[in-house]
Amino acid sequence: MRAMVLERQGEPLVLSDLPLPRPGPGQVLIEITACGVCRTDLHVVDGDLTKPKLPLVPGHEIVGRVRAIGDGVSTLKQGQRVGVPWLGHACGCCRYCREHAENLCDAPGFTGYTIDGGYAEACVADARFTFPLPAEGSDAELAPLLCAGLIGYRSLKMSGDAATLGIYGFGAAAHIMAQVALWQGRRLFAFTRPGDTAAQDFARRLGACWAGDSTEMPPEELDAAIIFAPVGALVPAALRGIRKGGIVVCGGIHMSDIPSFPYEILWGERQVRSVANLTRADGEEFLALARQAGVRCEVETFPLGEANIALDRLRRGQLTGAAVLLP
């Protein structure tokens, strides 16, 4: 099979021919039809996340069809359309798994980081962490739901019942969660990198009641804010924009250092929370909710061999919506 391989962090991916993997017990072989390009992939490639398996096939927003089934798998069928997310394995026996918090597992496996992922024509995946996908929607449009959507949804849940919601960083996750939040009846305020009028226009087109630079204060106090951009300086900025008792949710797996800030902007029982990975329950809830809310992903597709171009476009902030690779 063809695959884009990360041989060393900080270097471009290499188009390679690899042996077709075989599913072991509890696994399925998936013929990949689309794989989203996530900011976490960029953190892996650029070296912000420092412990990948190498060489590595990145990618964890995988859509494809089941082509072979390993021993002991009874939940999936040949030919079924499925999705594979970031959390590709959990031990099932640590305190977090026992407490239904498998997203915090002490011995996890992560697709496209510690497990070969979806920048390829095929992959193997743990059947327990593989989601059946609905019949509706194209493969490319479904792919971003597998991480941008899932992590966004967990972030949205952590924001509580916020009626006025700020989103910092209006990329793949934000444009999905904006649709869910607006469907739920929330009022949305979008914050982008300074001068990114294209992203601001995109947010307004989706239904945001205000969009502006992340250096600006919102026109009114917010009940909560979600930060998708990996910029630590946005934490004190968001704290200044929320009301007493409000919540700031950090929705990324990596963020630059948070600068010091005066206690007074945290005081008043404001909260700062982080989101770590996802659970299978998150996936089941969100995929059902996305259908009800009529979520549509805006995507730009690239051939598999142009993965480096897609990553660089993401790195430079030159994408509207989400990038998706088509093998």
TrEMBL record:
PROSITE patterns: ADH_ZINC
Top-level taxon in the UniProt lineage: Bacteria
Cofactor requirement: Zn(2+)
Residue ranges of domain Alcohol dehydrogenase-like N-terminal in the record: 24-134
Single GO MF annotation: zinc ion binding
GO CC list: cytoplasm
Keywords annotated in UniProt: Metal-binding, Oxidoreductase, Zinc
SUPFAM superfamilies: GroES-like, NAD(P)-binding Rossmann-fold domains
Family: Belongs to the zinc-containing alcohol dehydrogenase family.
NCBIfam families associated with the record: adh_fam_2
Name the UniProt record assigns to this protein: Alcohol dehydrogenase, propanol-preferring
Organism (species): Aliiruegeria lutimaris
Lineage: Bacteria, Pseudomonadati, Pseudomonadota, Alphaproteobacteria, Rhodobacterales
